[in-house]
Design a protein that fits this description.
Helix content: 40-55%
Largest sheet: 8 strands, mixed
Number of strands: 8
Number of helices: 10
Radius of gyration: 17 Å
CATH topology: Spore Coat Polysaccharide Biosynthesis Protein SpsA, Chain A
Strand content: 15-25%
Distance between the termini: 37 Å
Order of helices and strands: EHEHEHEEHEHEHHEHHH
Structural class: alpha/beta
Strand order of the largest sheet: 3-2-1-4-7-6-8-5
Length: 246
């Protein structure tokens, strides 16, 4: 019998994500016997994000815009002994809660973290190739991105220093501090919207992300990468927080 954690805190950063939450929150709240709290850390939405979050029973907090800042704020507000960081447009498969509880119940995972299996809501061949590429990157390079979720004990998270208030690469920064050997992959699909690939291209968008990743590993400061991301690939964004929330 699985020993359930006393509380799992699920942190979801949002910016004008009402439609995405309508699709993802039902899966989040299908946790069954797993005790959860859901914290929506909003960065200044002007749509119905707040209303949707509250209607589903999530706790809504305001945070400085930027995914890194919002994730950090959500974690600070959390009360659970385990944390699950999740993107607003990611829908977890039905077995997610049981699998997460089993991982958390293993004392050997107290100083480890886990991510879910990346999947897209697109039936086309390019989507399957993208899923295989992400699986390879996760398995061989140990570099999952934030749209695969992140399950981590709160004590371990604190010891690592938590999410940094970075405008980009906040997920890669955290994964690097966790380390490849302390990262597990859970065989549960985290189905993410493919709209960003349909809009940005199944080739051009990954290339853009690869450029940003390369700049990060070369030591280019995250704010500068954000400006490059905005100016070269995404047009003009307001402020330094140029991260697209998808």
């Amino acid at each position: 019998m699985i020993s359930l954690p006393s509380m799992l805190s699920i942190v979801i950063p949002t910016l004008n994500a009402a439609g995405a939450l309508e699709r993802s929150l039902p899966a989040v709240f299908s946790a069954g016997a797993l005790p959860i709290e859901v914290i929506v850390a909003d960065g200044g939405s002007i749509d119905g994000t707040a209303q949707v979050a509250l209607e589903y029973g999530a706790r809504l907090i305001e945070a400085a815009p930027g995914r890194g800042s919002q994730l950090a704020a959500g974690a600070e507000a959390a009360t659970g002994e385990w944390l699950l960081f999740l993107h607003a447009d990611t829908i977890l498969a039905r077995s997610w809660a049981e699998t997460a509880a089993a991982f958390a119940a293993d004392n050997g995972n107290r100083r480890r973290a886990a991510v879910f299996r990346f999947a897209l809501d697109d039936d086309g061949g390019p989507a399957r190739r993208m899923e295989r590429l992400v699986a390879w990157r996760t398995r061989v390079l140990g570099l999952p991105y934030g749209d695969q979720g992140l399950l981590i004990g709160s004590d371990f998270y604190i010891d690592l220093g938590g999410f940094k208030p970075l405008p980009v690469m906040e997920d890669v920064d955290m994964i690097r501090r966790i380390g490849r050997r302390r990262l597990a992959s859970l065989d549960v699909a985290a189905v993410t919207s493919a709209e960003r690939f349909r809009r940005g291209g199944y080739l051009l968008r990954p290339l853009r992300n690869l450029v940003c990743l390369g700049l990060y590993f070369l030591g280019v400061p995250a704010p500068r990468i954000a400006r490059i991301y905005a100016g070269v690939y995404a047009g003009v964004y307001a402020g330094v927080y140029a991260r697209v929330y998808d």
